Amino acid sequence: MSNKEDKIHILFVNPFSSSIGVSGADKSLLSLIAGLDKNKYKVSVAFPIKSRYLEETTDSFYREEYEKSGAKLYHMRMCVLYRTKNPFALLKNLLFLIPNIINLIRIIKREKVTIVHSNNTAIIGSGIAARICGIPSVYHVREIIGKPKIMRFLYPRLINRLADVIICISEAVALMFLENSVPHYKAVVVYNGIDLSHFNKPLDSMKLKREFTIPEASPLIGIVGRISPRKGHVYFIEAAAKIIKEIPDAKFYIIGWVESHAQVYTELLNKLKTLINSLGLYKQVMFTGVRKDIPDIMASLDIIVMASASAAAPEPFGRVIVEAMAAGKPVVSTNEGGAPELIEDGKTGILVPPADSEALAQAVLSLLKNKELKKNMGALAKESVQNKFSEHTMVANTERYYREIISESHPELARQQFQTEPKKTILYVNPFSSAIGVSGADVCLLDLINALDKNKYRIFVALPTKSQFNKELRTSYYYNDYIAAGANVHYVRMCLFYRTLNIFAIAKNILELMPNVIGLVKLIRKHKVKIIHSNNMALIAPGIAAKITGIPCIYHIREIIRHPKIAATAYPYIITKLADKIICISEAAASMFRKFNSKERDLHVIYDGIDLTMFHPDIDGTKLRKELNLSTDIPLIGMVGRISKRKGHIYFIEACKLIKQKIPNAKFVIAGWIDSEFKPYLELLNAVTSRIEQLGLKNDVYFLGNRRDVPEIMKALDVHIMASSSYAAPEPFGRVIVESMAIGTPVIATRDGATPEIINGENGILVPILNSEAIAEKVIFLLENKDYYEKIVQNSISTAHEKFDMKNSTHEIITLYEDIMERK
């Protein structure tokens, strides 16, 4: 058992603890506190002396539960920022900010608090106090701000400054932060959990009927939760009037509390009662007031309704939905906020448009009239919540983020309590992450990230906010793939030095260099980065940032520069000075650096590996042929890869015409993406399509565009062509060659850059660059010589397995990381 001093002390700041009725925020916080291991954690909770919910008293509706949880309780005046444009209201609240911060700092220092966990975004004093004391700050976001828009814009940005982790109770809540430039790894989703044991035991399904003397056969429909304008009680009552017309014995219950001291709420209650009387529903609609026996209440109802409808404050989660589902009851809910994440429409519940009493009524009627549907929906609903929305899952997910931030801020405490070593953070800088289509550099980086042990390494990927390949702010074709691989994605404005002699372009990039360096330095220092790994040499900021912060820098060279001459000399020289290690993806790429690199041990050739479980001979190649309506006896020749001038598509098209003369039934495909916003590429595409028409190949060449089913496309081909032809920028490796070889599709490639390191004549065919006749000749030769064709197939598969297995390349790089960290 841990000593008291050695425990992780969490101070929860709970500004809206209710003094009147049931509060979802309180229930969730109590569940979290109860679920934390008290041998590891010590818990304190700070409550407001006076707030929207605490006008006269320091008490909380849940005071007894908090005391039983073992938490130490504090009461203080809090500065709570409401959603208001009223400058006087804001000023009044800000007057309490300094005293609020001082009180929290005193508690933090006296009690040696480890983490400050704010249970609402409306309190900023807790985050400021944590920052002043130099300890981690967690914000638990339990609301969606729809309006005013200025608050939706400002709040997420403000909380981002104050928090180390922002826990959102739904994806809908997280979206509010993501759209305001908060990184995804910071705005995380942890769904609220409920104590399922209360709903899995036998429940009193007749409780309400006994209490209100209701006939056993009468169906009961209820709305559960605080009576508030945004909860949509008006639409519930209007729907009740419509339902009564078809099912006269139906009864309706409004279960929840109203803030009697707040005028707007008492006016709402009077409005609801007036509406009930005007519709003649005073015998059918009943108020139960606040209840703590929610499981039995849910069991007593046939259908639970959540009618929330508010553009200003959409429903952030829907705890009552989960409780109703746990009780095995179907839910009819408005399709707003977090509700669609809880309900699978038509299967575990029914979603209807907000503020639509007619749709609400029809949904309820459809369930009341179909008992089998109601029963099955309730059963599926109960099944769906068992794992996803349990208290255990919520506590485990929250504690995971506690562990991460404690490992960074208090490594010794993390070792003692969790028996884990702090993770080593690697920052990858990927300046050319494609926003449009498949990118070899991205794929290789993803393979490496997937291979890293996430228990040992913490991974950040810096992507460009705008680049040659990324015209739209904050987009990357592989954004979700990086997240799925376990990386924390961060967007940075990058200074990219293109191969250009344009003095204005160079000057523009130099102006962006300092902001780029500063941004990377901040990331390095904030997240205690151990290694920075640049995935391209067009970026010098990573090397400079590494020098400033004193960490090792690795440059991954994925290109060959021959022209302009000054760039071919300057780039390798500068990178050699900035890098601790240089990884080249071929000997051809490494040749640029050898004359500048006196330490051969710092220059490494590591070929890009491929995932042999994805690229293998047993892939089904019939899909594309079916799509194009081509039989298996029709020869299919193709190119796969980004459409770029250096890729030689024009020579491929010229070769297609020559092949057709010898093999009339041959067809051709071009698979790949083009940066349509980049003028030279658009002009190239027009030139290629024009040449196809000029040669009469319009019906023989298929443009597939950007595709992710690359293995299936390659398998469908009889011959794969790589026609790269560029003196200025030769092919640095040829990933598509290796992928095709692994699948068993023969490759004909130009003798350009690194291609001779892959193809040796036994496993593929090399032809001169800029030579469509040579391409055509070898294609025809391959297709007409089956024995030679089969020999190429077998040898290419063997080569891919022997030299280009992703496991080997990633192992070499990881070994390099370990070596460089030991040396530093």
TrEMBL record:
Residues 207-383, 623-796 form the Glycosyl transferase family domain. GO terms for molecular function: glycosyltransferase activity. It holds the Pfam family Glyco_transf_4. Residues 22-197, 438-612 form the Glycosyltransferase subfamily 4-like N-terminal domain. NCBIfam families: PelF (NF038011). PANTHER family: SULFOQUINOVOSYL TRANSFERASE SQD2 (PTHR45947:SF3). This is Glycosyl transferase family 1 domain-containing protein.
